[in-house]
Automatic annotation (TrEMBL):
Gene3D superfamilies to which the protein is assigned, alphabetical: 3.40.50.880
Keyword Lipoprotein: no
Taxonomy, superkingdom: Bacteria
Function: IGPS catalyzes the conversion of PRFAR and glutamine to IGP, AICAR and glutamate. The HisH subunit catalyzes the hydrolysis of glutamine to glutamate and ammonia as part of the synthesis of IGP and AICAR. The resulting ammonia molecule is channeled to the active site of HisF.
Cellular component, GO, one term: cytoplasm
Catalytic activity: L-glutamine + H2O = L-glutamate + NH4(+); 5-[(5-phospho-1-deoxy-D-ribulos-1-ylimino)methylamino]-1-(5-phospho-beta-D-ribosyl)imidazole-4-carboxamide + L-glutamine = D-erythro-1-(imidazol-4-yl)glycerol 3-phosphate + 5-amino-1-(5-phospho-beta-D-ribosyl)imidazole-4-carboxamide + L-glutamate + H(+)
The protein's name in its UniProt record: Imidazole glycerol phosphate synthase subunit HisH
Organism per entry: Novosphingobium marinum
Localization (cell): Cytoplasm
Keywords: Amino-acid biosynthesis, Cytoplasm, Glutamine amidotransferase, Glycosyltransferase, Histidine biosynthesis, Hydrolase, Lyase, Transferase
Ion transport listed as a keyword: no
């Protein structure tokens, strides 16, 4: 029987592209859903996200019992979880875009604007860039070195450096991925990262943390 993968629909993600990429990577039971009961029964959970941290956090928390069902399934049930772009940023304690907005606080840290230390560095950070796993990477069976597609103006600053799974360089180090226990978040877009992204999604589908 195929696993059920809950792709969270809260009005803040390019769901069609992510769903197609997951299917291309081998997922058979993808359910695009905002139903807490579906989430509680899912084998894996993917949280996408595009746009501002505040809008995404507001949209996610506006759906009754959705955050509670995700928390229950991931933290109690142990379901593997993948956050993509703003979906990764929402794992943080807070986002500082348009004021301070609480995140899920699953991985301590905050989301701040990318600081331009060099006038030649452009923000947003957009395009292909390296993904370099850290020496202490915990979810190394999912995140491997390569090149991925980024599009963001804000960066995840983790409280615990051991939660940083991979880095990239854009006028200085920027967190490319975070991980803790059965949770992984990637700042880049696997669904736009061609062969590298599909291989990463395939590893996530097989991941047994």
């Amino acid at each position: 029987m195929a696993e059920v993968l809950a792709l969270i629909d809260y009005g803040a993600g390019n769901l069609h592209s992510v769903a197609n990429a997951l299917k291309a990577a081998g997922a058979q039971g993808v359910k695009v859903t905002s139903d807490p009961d579906v989430v509680r029964a899912a084998d894996r959970i993917v949280l996408p996200g595009v746009g501002s941290f505040r809008a995404c956090a507001k949209g996610l928390k506006a759906i009754p019992h959705l955050v509670e069902s995700m928390t229950e399934r991931v933290h109690v049930g142990g379901a593997p979880f993948l956050g993509i772009c703003v979906g990764m940023q929402l794992l943080s304690t807070r986002g500082l875009e348009h004021g301070s907005t609480p995140g899920l606080d699953w991985i301590g840290g905050e989301v701040r604007t990318i600081e331009r230390t060099d006038p030649a560095i452009k923000v947003p950070h957009m395009g292909w860039n390296d993904v370099a796993p850290t020496p202490h990477a915990r979810g190394h069976e999912v995140i491997e070195p390569g090149e991925a597609y980024f599009l963001h103006s804000y960066q995840f600053v983790a409280e615990d450096p051991h939660d940083v799974e991979a880095m990239t360089d854009h006028g200085g180090g920027i967190v490319a991925a975070v991980a803790r226990d059965n949770m992984i978040g990637v700042q880049f877009h696997p669904e736009k990262s061609q062969a590298y992204g599909l291989a990463l999604l395939a590893r996530f589908l097989e991941w047994k943390p």
